[in-house]
Amino acid sequence: MTGMTVIVKTITRWTAALIFLYGAYMVLYGHLSVGGGFAGGIILACSYVIMILAYGGKETIHALPKAIASRLDSVGALAFLLLAVFGMFVGGSFFSNWVRDIWRGEDFHVFSAGIIPLANIAIALKVCVSLFLIFFILASLRMPKKGDKIEFHAEEVD
Amino acid sequence: MNIDLHTLLPLAIAIPLGMGFILPLLGKKLTRLADTLATLATALLVCLSVLLLIGLHQAGKPQVYWFGGWSVTASGTVFGINLVLDGLSALMLVVVAVVSFAATLFSTRYMDRYTARGKYYSLFMLMITGMNGCILTGDMFNLYVFLEIAAVSSYALVAFGCERDELEASFKYLILGCVASTFVLLGVALLYAQYGALNMAQLGQRMSMVAPGRGSILALLLMLSGLGVKAALVPFHAWLPDAHPSAPAPISAMLSGVLIKAIGVYAIIRIVFNVYGFNDQLGMALMVLGTLSMVVGVVMALNQWDFKRLLAYHSISQIGYVILAIGLGTPLGILAGLFHLANHAIFKSLLFLSAGAVDYRTGTRQLEEMGGLAQRMPSTARSSMIASMSIAGVPPFNGFFSKLLIIIACVQAGRWGFALWAVIVSILTLASFMKVQKYAFYGQLKAKWAQVKDVPLIMRCSMALLALLCIAMSLLLIPGLKAVVLDSARDALVQGVDGYRTAVSALLGAGS
Amino acid sequence: MVYTLCLLLFMIGLYGVLTQKNLIKIIIGLGIMEYAVNMLLIMIGYRHDGIVPILEAGMDVKKFMATAVDPLPQAMVLTAIVINVAVLALSIAVAMRLYQKYGTYDITEIRRLRG
What pTM was computed for the model? Predict the structure, then answer.
């Protein structure tokens, strides 16, 4: 997994942060316009994937190490589940919009619609990190070339 | 403190889901803590499901839980997703919880041979979440989503050891399972296009008002094919004999014991009885599929010398019994089928766990290489003998009673041919398991096994628990217990489309 | 008419899964089947001359509900796409591991389990 030419690296340096910004916009405005947690999370992951493609895996893993990524993955999912379970205690039923009952906010603005933006952020975190991990691990599997001996023991990439 | 029963329903999904996300955080350093937490979570699930079963019997009517406070409006439009607990769901919840508890106990020591314990438990808990959600849900698309959660976790778990056999089996299972799920989604999409409803109760109501059109028949065929692959009925069974032996032993027990039932058989019978409504053609189709599965399963199993592959073929055969009994459509037939479903979960998972125990100590699954292990592994041999006698239908174990009820139900409904096939398959099953017991546990002790010890205490305990249940479940036919457990499950299906609809909401009775 | 095209695409995908020998091509056939089902689902919700189902400030609610495209199939498709991404990632990972073990992507040579 080596990097690409200087031109690609330069352009990637400029655009990766913009792509991240676009993804964050889609996540935060998910309850007002198109997008939402999953689509925004995919675009956030794309910004990391572009960096892997342009710079190679070894450089990008410093931006988001594998151990931190695994933890963030579980934290994002747990945050979503906790939001739902709190609804049982505070609002009355699992997944009810308890934040909106506490603090309504004005309609059609960003800080409204209770639990929906918070759930979008949790899901975007999980999706972004999961897709980054999937891409990174799949790209770093060592594939045998022609003429390599095929081993018969299990290899853990983990 | 007075808690409504229906508020406990989301816990059956939230507990394993939360555990599935917490356990991988514990990772490599705290494996014993992960083991303890997983065991506690499944024990909690057992308590919760038994509580729900008893509470349902006391409440007398099915419990419905609407997510997020969205419910049925006064004009009869359904806005939310609901969880429905009726007799059938309660019975399946208990079965899933008990088998997963035994499998978790077993895997605390068995999985010492594999790495990545945190990820194993995470996938395991996700599989339990998927199964519980599938059993409880009252919405068709939600059924598809939970079915996929359970199925994808099981694809990954079959490939867990990353050896050549496991990867090949997992890939085969994955492709067949994914095509099947796409068929199910297409069926749900066609039903939505035709009737504009996703909630099972509302869909049943709208379907009962018009004659079945070509769209709904095509949707039924698609869904039966897709769910038939998940349940391993005979034209669709090709993945099971490769996938179940290749998985680690506790996962084989879960797959064969509860997964094919919770996402396959349960989904089929819920859709056929409570959404479409049962009629004779559907019943005949189910009976033919069931008989085909019974016969093909047992005939292929007679030829096998791999312990777990033989057990996998017998799974196909016993699921055929269940589908045959339910396809009869009479109350006794449905009762017999559901009883056999619960029994099979217990004794088949016990058989897979004992095969895993033998594999753990001797390292082989080939029957020809084993011999006389009863002298060195007495506890495993005893549990395995109890399970073999259950599946072969020897009194006083639970298998005998459920098979007897199935045969009596066939005879009472006038289906002599099917009853004859059931008897023949039962005799062949007995022959097959006598072979297993002779070659694996009794007979001459081979020299290379002279030093094996029995498996660790926890594994022996989990097998002993299931063996005890094999004997105890025969007591479920006593009238008092039968009314609590089996009768309410049967009534949930016999009540048909109208009963299910009124159970979910009286407001759905109005037009719409 | 459009539904027939979607089902035709579904059949093409199914043909790919059934007849191809290369593991990766089987996975691609599976992907084509999933695209076809997703497209069918979205087409179901279409309403002629419909508007996007996003309520903006100052819009009349009754007129909105009479002309908006059905958003429920769109939610179903989002969920289905998420599930398909997970299955695709898993299948590619298993296929790559199979290549590591067997040295080939050809399914006629990956047949150790029989009987």
Answer: 0.93
The pLDDT of residue B42 is 93
Q: Which amino acid is at B394?
A: V
What SS3 class is residue B83?
strand
Q: What is the amino acid identity at position B45?
A: L
Domain of residue B288: give its range: 279-477
C87 to chain B: which residues are within 8 Å by CB? 148, 152, 155, 174, 178
Q: Which CATH number fits domain C2-102: 3.40.50.880, 1.10.357.10, 1.20.120.1770, 1.10.287.3510?
A: 1.10.287.3510
- Is the per-residue pLDDT at A138 higher than 70? yes
Q: Is residue B15 part of a domain?
A: no
Domain assignment of residue A156, yes or no: no
Q: Which structural domain, as residue segments, surrounds residue A133?
A: 6-139
From chain B, the residues in CB contact with C115 under 8 A are 241, 303-304, 309
Judge: B162–A155 Cβ closer than 8 Å, yes or no.
Answer: yes
Can you tell me the distance from the alpha carbon of A1 to that of A136, in angstroms, rounded to the nearest whole number?
Answer: 10
**DSSP letter (8 states) at residue B443:** S
* Residue B91, token pair as written in the block: 């019975």
Alpha helices in chain A (DSSP H): 6-28, 37-55, 57-60, 66-86, 98-102, 115-139
Residue A109 and residue A23 in contact, taking contact as beta carbons nearer than 8 Å: no
Residue A144 lies in a domain: no
| Residue owning tokens 């859709």 | B271
Say whether B10 and A94 touch across the interface (CB within 8 A): yes
Question: In the structure encoding, which two tokens stand for residue B472, read together?
Answer: 């105890």
Beta-carbon contacts of residue B321 (< 8 Å; ≥ 6 apart): B290, B294, B337, B340, B344, B403, B406, B422, B425
Instruction: Please write the tens of the pLDDT for every residue from B129-161.
Output: 999 999 999 899 999 999 999 999 999 999 888
- CA dihedral over B291, B294, B300, B302, signed as positive or negative: negative
Distance between B407 CA and the closest CA of chain A, angstroms: 44
What is the pLDDT at residue A94? 81
Name residues of chain C where pLDDT drops below 50. Answer: none
CA dist., res. A114 & res. B14, Å (int):
21
DSSP bridge pairs for B64: B84
Question: Quick check: A33 and C97 CB within 8 A?
Answer: no
Could you give the number of structural domains in chain B?
1
What is chain C's Cα-based Rg? 20
B129 and B16 in contact (C-beta within 8 Å)?
A: yes
CA atoms within 13 A on the CB side of B398: 27
Interface test with C, best of B137, B155, B174 (most C CBs within 10 A): B174
CB B357 within 8 A of CB B380: yes
Alpha helices, H only, B196-330: 200-209, 214-231, 240-246, 249-254, 266-270, 280-301, 307-328
Helix B164-195 and helix C2-19, axial crossing angle in degrees, nearest 10: 170
Q: Which residues of B1-30 are buried (b: 16+ CB within 10 A; e: fewer)?
A: eeeebbebbbbbbbbbbbbbbbbbbbbeee
Q: A152 in a domain, yes or no?
A: no
Residue B490 lies in a domain: no
CA–CA separation, B297 and B289 (whole Å): 12
Listed residue (B371, B396, B408) closest to B476, CA to CA? B396
User: Tens of pLDDT along B226-278?
Assistant: 999 999 998 888 899 988 888 888 999 999 889 998 889 999 999 998 888 88
Taking an 8 Å cut-off on Cβ atoms, the answer to whether B198 and C72 are in contact is: yes
Phi and psi dihedrals of B22, rounded to 5? -80, -40
In-domain check, residue B292: yes
**Model pLDDT, residue A100:** 78
